[in-house]
């Protein structure tokens, strides 16, 4: 298929900008429409990226009959609305993470993709890091043996985004750092472990800082935010079991009093080797260690890492999926599984008990 793919992007924030930039670099792809509420920014981006059709309403963009694909880069509460409307009108959809606020929405999106025979993908750009790709090669070549325990975290010391905005409203976002940051780490772990079947989760959430106007990203302006709406967690911890006995721990925070800045990482424990990834402030150099034995001698390997291309790779994979014609293989199931796990974690925290993933799937 070598026809030009015509794309529309909904959203003008960080996500809308990186999607647009990535499409512009791909031969045979044209960004022909852009939508968003901030009029100045709409005009600015339209000019910067030479996009001819600009809309304030996403509905007007999705209604165009000449688009092949739509990127959904809106607040989480709009993901399902925009994506389903686009899928129903025959467009392929690349949706920012999380796929949706909850399983019900995510399942409806997958159903719409299957019904309309279109691609639905979730943007998991942190899986496209160079260190994650290298680690995956070590795992696939058997260096770690069977991984039986894995830990992952994304911890910010003071990093509540947009206090009082959609980010900190449960209704609009679906949750706090777990659904915002934790979903990236969950995706990395699921990718590295080969999409294990999570059977149960036990989680806790805490809200200690946001409602007091503390822990916000711009610490100098903290007082301005006191009393702003904040009904999500600022820390979440979870313990998960998989079908084959492997266990997984996940932590995600927007605000904690600990020696973190905006850091994420992983620890993998395998029967033949282990791995550790430590990323501080989105760095990419010297982030990975592999632990194994050479004969009887314990050896630590420090692979040369590279940055990876993040959203560029995500967008290229999406275009490749469209061009492949094998659309039912890209119907959003990965994104759905991560939303199910996140929902199970929130349910577990609320009810103070272990939750089976089966019960989350059956509820849809
Ligand atoms: N993968 C990543 O690294 C990453 C980073 C940041 C955000 N995100 C995700 O991207 C999404 C957007 O996040 P953001 O930080 O860019 O948010 P943002 O609030 O900065 O931008 C949201 C955009 O959506 C637009 N919008 C809202 N309602 C609209 C409507 N009714 N019609 C048209 N446009 C509308 C707004 O005008 C705005 O331009 C979220 O799902 C977030 O989780 C992902």
From TrEMBL:
List residues of the Gfo/Idh/MocA-like oxidoreductase N-terminal domain. Answer: 5-123
Coiled-coil segments, which residues?
none
| Pfam families reported in the protein's UniProt record | GFO_IDH_MocA, GFO_IDH_MocA_C3
Signal sequence: where?
none
* InterPro entries noted in UniProt: Gfo/Idh/MocA-like_OxRdtase_N, Gfo/Idh/MocA_Oxidoreductase, GFO_IDH_MocA-like_dom, NAD(P)-bd_dom_sf
Domain GFO/IDH/MocA-like oxidoreductase, residue spans: 135-275
| GO molecular function annotation | nucleotide binding
Highest taxon of the lineage: Bacteria
Protein's recorded name: Oxidoreductase domain protein
Q: Which organism is it from?
A: Thermobaculum terrenum (strain ATCC BAA-798 / CCMEE 7001 / YNP1)
Lineage runs: Bacteria, Bacillati, Chloroflexota, Chloroflexia, Candidatus Thermobaculales
